[in-house]
Design a protein that fits this description.
The chain is an alpha+beta fold and 484 residues long. Among the domains are: 250 residues, Catalase HpII,  Chain A, domain 1; 57 residues, no CATH class. The protein is built from 13 helices and ten strands. The longest helix has 17 residues. The protein is globular and about 80 Å long. This is Catalase. It comes from Paenibacillus zeirhizosphaerae. It catalyses: 2 H2O2 = O2 + 2 H2O. Belongs to the catalase family. Its EC number is 1.11.1.6.
């Protein structure tokens, strides 16, 4: 093998001239035999994979998770049950609605997706920097995201659609209140909490289960951006959050989070005052206190953004033994949709890429497809069951059952109190925080053309807290809702 630092083609041949095309004579035209030119142009045309439909703009980093407390009484997941055990991980932070080139400092939830490379397979915890979400059934997700994207005629953002949808979907009230609070624009990715948001199920070695919610608490403290400063930075440095994360790690200022969980006994799900599987609601920490699990540290930047951040694929359906799904309807839809998005965007073999490849051995019968860059299973067994010693199922890792009953029908949640928790959040705020919240909402709602949409939305906040609705109505110059 040559030791020369030669530029080569993709098939490894040295390039003799990378400055000039091969032409017929001094003035050309260019010859089709210049395969190096053709390869460069053809590859350049294909350098962009489709961007993510949501969470397109993001930043990532490598790090580790260290278990600091033994929670084996709740889960048999090995990376959580041995104090001092370190598990490598990769995290991707993101905005939700904007395109790949959009500004970092907009008012938007932030994606908080963590891939744990455990000995039992990859575990993905794909959440946000908020403990709740706008909707609670995946069937509404495409419609919701359409309202956050661009109008099909004008190609402009459309506040009419945003507020029309929210006002007709009162389950969004809690998340919208968080979004327009100070926490709607984090100062950096380092200065925000992260949440699994959904309820999940933990199962211990004895097969005993509990319901669980995840909370990542930033050790850097919560810091948020002033609205006017955020708008200025969106123009001056639209990549501010991306830059801040990279620079902090580069200079050795490694960001860290403590991971806590809330644990709910399985039987409490039948009697808790809010449906514990409704992702638009939180569990009171007075009812289910935070239990410390471990610590996450980010200590290494990607070497290549495309290979590691853009091609990273996360799915809440990537479980390991000891962690399972709950009946949360929003989660149930995500279990399919996320991996399906990656099969479309990156390819059927996205899990064979280095950033997504498990450290655990992969033994399955999935073969072929575009971009199969590993050994494709070699000459090994390619079906199951078989009589030739191929990999077999592991009955001890079957998903644990939970009881279901009722009719097969399109049905909603039993609980429709969308107002108590949003009102509680408002009442927890200081007067300064409330004033900013009202100003943020009023500013966002003013462009809405129909007063009926504004009044309908004000009515929801009035139900949550009369002062909230009244002040918002006054800020918008509209009547205070009567008889709501």
């Amino acid at each position: 093998m040559s030791n020369h630092n030669h530029l080569t083609t993709s098939w490894g041949a040295p390039v003799g001239d990378n400055q000039n095309s091969i032409t017929a004579g001094h003035r050309g035209p260019v010859l089709i035999q210049d395969v190096h030119l053709l390869e460069k142009l053809a590859h350049f045309n294909r350098e962009r994979v489709p961007e993510r439909v949501v969470h397109a703009k993001g930043a990532g980093a490598h790090g580790y998770f260290e278990a600091t407390h033994d929670l084996s009484q709740y889960t048999k997941a090995a990376f959580l049950s041995e104090v001092g055990k370190r598990t490598p991980l990769f995290i991707r932070f993101s905005t939700v609605a904007g395109e790949l080139g959009s500004a970092d400092t907009v008012r938007d939830p932030r994606g908080f997706a963590v891939k744990f490379y455990t000995e039992e397979g990859n575990y993905d915890l794909v959440g946000n920097n908020t403990p709740v979400f706008f909707i609670r059934d995946a069937i509404k997700f495409p419609d919701f995201i359409h309202t956050q994207k661009r109008h099909p005629q004008t190609h402009l953002k459309n506040p009419n659609a945003v507020w029309d949808f929210w006002s007709l979907s009162p389950e969004s009230l809690h998340q919208v209140t968080i979004l327009f609070s100070d926490r709607g624009i984090p100062a950096t990715y380092r200065h925000m909490h992260g949440f699994g948001s959904h309820t999940f199920k933990w199962v211990n070695a004895a097969g005993e289960g509990v319901w669980v919610k995840y909370h990542f608490k930033t050790e850097q403290g919560i810091k948020n951006l002033d609205v006017e400063l955020a708008a200025k930075m969106a123009g001056d440095n639209p990549d501010y959050h991306t830059e801040d994360l990279f620079n902090a790690i580069e200079k050795g200022d490694f960001p860290a989070w403590k991971l806590y969980v809330q644990i709910m006994p399985l039987e409490d799900a039948h009697t808790y005052r809010f449906d514990p599987f409704d992702v638009t609601k939180v569990w009171s920490q007075k009812d289910y206190p935070l239990i410390e699990v471990g610590r996450m540290v980010l200590d290494r930047n990607p070497e290549n953004y495309f290979a590691e951040v853009e091609q990273a694929t996360f799915s809440p359906g990537n479980f390991v033994p000891g962690i399972e799904a709950s009946p949360d309807k929003m989660l149930q839809g995500r279990l399919f949709a996320y991996s399906d998005a990656h099969r479309y965007r990156v390819g059927a073999n996205h899990n064979t890429l280095p950033i997504n490849r498990p450290v655990a051995d992969v033994k399955n019968n999935q073969r072929d497809g575009f971009m199969r860059a590993d050994g494709n299973g070699g000459a090994g067994m390619y079906y199951e069951p078989n009589s030739y010693g191929g990999p077999k199922e592991a009955p001890e890792h079957k998903t644990t059952p939970f009881a279901v009953s009722g009719l097969a029908e399109s049905t909603g949640y039993d609980h429709d109190d969308h107002y108590t928790q949003a009102g509680d959040l408002y009442r927890l705020m200081s007067e300064d925080e409330r004033t900013r919240l009202i100003a943020n909402i009023a500013g966002a709602m003013k462009p809405v053309e129909k007063d009926e949409i504004k009044i309908r939305q004000i009515g929801h906040w009035y139900k949550a807290e009369p002062e909230f609705g009244t002040r918002l109505a006054q800020a918008l110059g509209l009547p205070v809702p009567q008889g709501v």
